[in-house]
Amino acid sequence: MLKRNLWKIVLSVVITAWALTTLLPMKDQDFAKYAKAQAGAKPAEFAKLVDEAVALRESGQAPSDYVALRQIARARRIDLSVYFPQFKLEETLKNVEKRDDLVLHELDRMRKSKLHKGLDLAGGVAVTLEIDERAATADNPDVRKEKISKAIDIIDKRINEFGVSEPLIRAVGDNRIEIQLPGINTKDNPEIVDLIKKPALLDFRVVNPNVTPGPGVDAPPGYQEMTLDNEDRRGETSSEQLFVKRIPEMTGKAIANSFVRADMYGKPEVILQFTKEGKKQFADITRTIAESGQKAGRLGRLAIVLDGQLYSAPTVREEIDSDSAEITGTFSDREALNLANVLNNPLDLPLVVKEQYEVGPSLAAGAISSGKRATVIGVALVAAFMISYYTLSGLIAVLSVTLNILIVLGVLASFGATLTMPGIAGIVLTVGMAVDAHILIFERMREELRAGKSLPAAFHAGHDKAFTTIIDANLTTLITSLLMVAFGNGPVKGFGITITIGIFSTMFTALIVSEMLLDFSIGSQLMKRMITLNLPAPKINFVKYGRRAFTASWVLVLVGVAALFYQGHKVYGIDFAGGDVMTLSFKQHVDIAKLQAAADSAKIGEVMPVYHSEIGGGLETLNVQTESGKGEAAVKAFQAAFPNAGYDLVGQTAIGPSIGKEIQWNALMAIGLSIIGIMVYVAFRFEIGYGFGAVVSTVHDVLMTVGIFVLVGRQFTAPMVGAILLIVGYSINDTIVVFDRIREELKQNPNLNLRDVINLATNRVFTRSILTSLTTFLAALALFIFGGGVINDLAFTFLVGIVTGTFSSIFIASPLFYWWHKGDRKHVEAHHDIAPKYEWAGSSRASD
Q1: Tally of domains within the chain
Q2: What is the pLDDT of residue 422?
Q3: Is residue 310 part of a domain?
Q4: Which of 26, 192, 253, 693 has its CB 3.0 to 4.6 Å from that of 816, i.e. a possible disulfide?
């Protein structure tokens, strides 16, 4: 027993230790104390600098210890890297300020919890960008609107490249873009704001070969004086003045792609790959420069200018008919990567930073507390049920699911993920679904015991028979989650990442950890018999009632869809439809939860109050986001409910949807491709009749959930897209279990007709379906009762999805399979496949 489980023990211990290590530290540590402790050289000398920084911050001359230490280092030209030899900075990076920034950034990163809190939990940074009117006055409103929409999509791509989770990006008015970045602060990450707003206006210009700047030398007509900063291999810097043509010969539109590579000295350089037209233009420019240089008796030079800054001015000896070129400069590896990213996503609009705010959490302390309470209660309910129903087996399942959560959090932490309340809700719901694998195994074991097998034999047979079903069910859900990652943005992508991790951790814990623990329990005689409660299998003619159930459910679906079309844009929340933002000054701070309650009492609809404070100090204001036309009503409601708060309206503007058209299209693409992918997979693993039943039942579940959601008067927000995609995965998971059993019963009962086989299979998995749905329902119910705001909406959606998914797998998918084959078993056998065997499933059965 020990021999066959040794590899599982080692693997489980290693993964558990890795997950725990990855999650440390669990909380952010004080920057000053942590920095002192990390100094690898001259610790006493560095501690004095830190103490000075703390004193500077306490005196109000710096907003934080981080900024104060940077100010001291820059004022005295101190190279902080000498105190941290362990950081191994690039030897070619000689700029002291850049070295200091990298050291401070690394210290700040290391002191923080690996799981960052999101904007709704801990706040972040809000940046408002405005179109530079001096460069965009010629645009008509339609063109400007189109450019702003494109800019939102490009900024979203840039931020995703930077690694920020679940950003919010939307248009404000007709000339601004608002960006909210969770878990980010500008004092520690100043480069991200520059990266966001860079228009990346790349020009290739001619350097005047005849005249160079000097005392009393004026710029020739059509040229301007520009400065080129150079750094040699020894790190020594110098500057050169050049006369560069004002009008470019070629722009960045000629660039097809850009990436970073190291030159022969190990310094980063950005490689530009030209389009077909760009290659021709570049050949023409270099030919002209080479010819003019020959006439002047010196080598001509080509200026590479980005956003008005001269990056490089290489000499040109002859025409260069090449597909690519290089930009060299004094940038670090990170700066080179940012530059390449910007060049791959060039903005047409020149943008300037209008406002930068530190954003308070949109969820009040009470709401965060209730969310945590809902999480604990949801997990506790699932654990209590499993232990009550399956006793020792249930306890093993709970231990396995606990490790499952630990692994999911560990992987998220290794990615530097930002944890938000919707993300926490997704983890809780994943717990409910993860229990399904254990219930499948336990129910299979009970069947084998009822057939007269011993406990060890029932254990091995139950695992073997559940293995294929668990793999199929999780792989179909994986199709959905991977498409969410590929096509989703913000919360949708976050959901997809969490679920993808959860699928692999669930299969690991259920098929390896739980099996190992059960094997030891049975082999050591700790579990002499499997004690469980008993929910008897029914004897229902599901096929008989299939037509009536099918008709009744689709009538409800049509009613919901009709309600959706009738209400039109009213069903869209602020994320989809935009709204109003009212900026209020105040004298008394009122808790967010109380403001939400006042808005609910006034029946204003969706309201999102958020406290803003300008970076670097300044007046704190309350920004209230509402549906279009509801802003003034919200202000009056707050003024009436809290007369002593002194609310005064100081600003009002309209905001665009945070989910742009491309993001909406991507979400629809994810849903559509998920359904197609599921059909292809099921048709491949089973046959086309199963695929048809699976797709129709999944579409049924999505439409019914959406319809009920609309009928009860709720509105769609960004996380709801992820919730609907979750339903797709959950629905197909349940359907696959039924189909897998039908396929098995067809093999084992060659004399039964198709109707009897479907009824037999459905009745035998009915108990499992009810138990699985109940555990998931308990987890979602806790979120629904104790979670507020978006958590309540997510939980409600999933509660409906659990019911519809269980119903459709029994009364929609199976009857459709029956009708597809016209009730003829021979028709099934003519198209049926043989279930594949997973070889390693049986390898663990080897004897000691």
Answers
A1: 5
A2: 57
A3: yes
A4: 693
